[in-house]
Specification:
homodimer, 113 residues, Barwin-like endoglucanases, 1 helix, globular, RplA (chains A, B), RlpA-like_sf (chains A, B), EC 4.2.2.- (chains A, B)
């Protein structure tokens, strides 16, 4: 077992939000190629690169997503997940879901050899 | 946006390990019904209930899994993921993968109304 980092990635406050998912678009607002299978998401306010721990209480599944896009522009929704992340969370059939999110702050100091 | 907890879930050291996945078995070593679609995993040593942040460097995907079983009993492998988690990480075709794991320690003090 090779230790990589001793960095701390901590999830602070946890919030209950409404999220949808999307699977179209060529380029994200951050300028990346959009990967519909990726674990990424759009937020109106969070800085690009922000990592969120996202939990679907209905399935008990949790994933980490990275903000790389802007949206959703629909009242009452706080996050728009790329389809890959939505699939992993088990919310495709629902289309819109209430999810728990917690922002990960990490100060990774790599000490790998 | 409803704040749920101010608990801290932090991921401390991160390790590089070899993992496989499994999809059979009725009951886990912790006595639960085994859910092959779940985000759970088997470890020879970690206590049941331990939550790990698991990242697949090959796909860049990260999920949270909960330890609820014992294994794998194969030299050189440190973790056996339930198929659901392995699918989300994109390691089904590989069968065995090198993954990054970090143990989540959470002191969740729920302050929901």
């Amino acid at each position: 077992m090779l230790q990589l980092t001793t960095g701390i990635a901590s999830a602070n406050e946890e919030y209950l939000i409404t999220a949808s998912y999307y699977s179209s678009g060529a380029v994200t607002a951050s300028g990346e190629r959009f990967d519909q299978d990726g674990f990424t998401a759009a937020s109106r306010t969070l800085p690009f690169g922000t990592r969120l721990q996202v939990t679907n209480p209905a399935t008990g599944r949790s994933v980490i997503v990275r903000i790389n896009d802007r949206g959703p522009f629909v009242r009452g929704r706080a996050l728009d997940l790329a389809k890959g992340a939505a699939e992993a969370l088990g919310m495709i059939s629902a289309g819109v879901a209430t999810l728990k999110i917690a922002r990960l702050t990490s100060e990774e100091a790599s000490n790998s050899p």
